[in-house]
Amino acid sequence: MRENTIRNIWHSGGAVINGWLTIPSPWSAELMAHQGWDSLTIDTQHGLIGYDAALPMLQAISTTPVMPLARAPWNEPVGIMKLLDAGAMGIICPMVNSVKEAQAFVGACRYAPLGYRSAGPTRAGLYGGSNYLQEANTSVITFAMIETAQAVKNVDDILSTPGLDATYVGPTDLAISLGLRPGGPLDEPRLDEAIQKIVKSCKQHGIIAGIHTSSTSDAIRCMERGFQFVTLLSDTRFLADASSAAVRAIRAGHVTPSAAGTPY
């Protein structure tokens, strides 16, 4: 079975730096895969990516050592199993609000007797290795998204689910659920309190804490607080931010250092 290097980073006490893909393009996925990320997540819930685009993106990422992950469209087995069969080495599942929902999610990612995943690792068997069916249960990573007030209330029950490896905090939906402004700072008191509760529960249950961040300072701060899986922005956001910054600099007559290599 192909080594899941995310688990190696966690076992050594390190934090995984994860990139986020929303553009349905094998080229942009391959480009992102060469930028030093530990893992890349293909977002099939939001963004523009369907299964037919996700498959070649997984193939593009596999030209590098970067670990390919996917966010499932929803907590339902068909989408989850197809992404795993296509070669995703872990699944981020949205809106897990109860232990029952966590159990259903984990079960879809695990072969019997640990779950009910159907055997048919079409590409995963090639990418993962000839013993994929025997080793996938201990290699594939399960992330339950904690992104509502209900999930925070039930977090200890959710994290007691056998086979659940990690949580993934969605700050925007969590803020909305708490009645706060989406996109606000992570240190807003009510949001910060909820995040602290999640991290504390993760430590108590031996579960990895993950989160999506919108700045390098937030990413570093979250790692310092105990998060071992941190996403920074997305391919769409990087493209938009870099483009707008360059245009503003030109219009303002600001000189910036030349980039290495050709302009392409």
Secondary structure layout:
Elements: H1 5-11, E1 16-21, H2 26-33, E2 39-43, H3 51-61, E3 67-71, H4 77-85, E4 90-93, H5 99-109, H6 124-128, H7 132-139, E5 141-146, H8 149-153, H9 155-158, E6 166-169, H10 171-177, H11 189-205, E7 210-213, H12 216-224, E8 229-232, H13 235-252
Parallel strand pairs: 1-2, 1-8, 2-3, 3-4, 4-5, 5-6, 7-8
Describe it:
Strand 7, helix 12 and strand 8 form a beta-alpha-beta unit. The relative contact order is 0.13. The longest helix is centred in the C-terminal third of the chain and has 18 residues. It is built from 13 helices and 8 strands. The protein has an 8-stranded parallel β-sheet. The chain has 264 residues and is of the alpha/beta class. The chain has a single domain, classed as Phosphoenolpyruvate-binding domains (TIM Barrel, Alpha-Beta Barrel), CATH 3.20.20.60. Helix 2 runs parallel beside helix 3. The protein starts with a helix and ends in a 12-residue tail after the last helix. The chain is 45% helix and 14% strand.
- Strand-residue proportion: 5-15%
> What would you call the shape?
globular
Task: Please write the CATH class name.
Answer: Alpha Beta
What is the arithmetic mean of pLDDT?
97
| CA-CA gap between termini | 37 Å
Structural class: alpha/beta
Please summarize the sheet with the most strands.
Answer: 8 strands, parallel
CATH superfamily: Phosphoenolpyruvate-binding domains
Can you write the helix and strand succession as a string? HEHEHEHEHHHEHHEHHEHEH
CATH architecture: Alpha-Beta Barrel
Number of strands: 8
Domain count? 1
CATH topology: TIM Barrel
Rg, rounded, reads 19 Å
Strand order of the largest sheet: 6-5-4-3-2-1-8-7
Helix % is 40-55%
Number of helices: 13
Low-confidence stretches: none
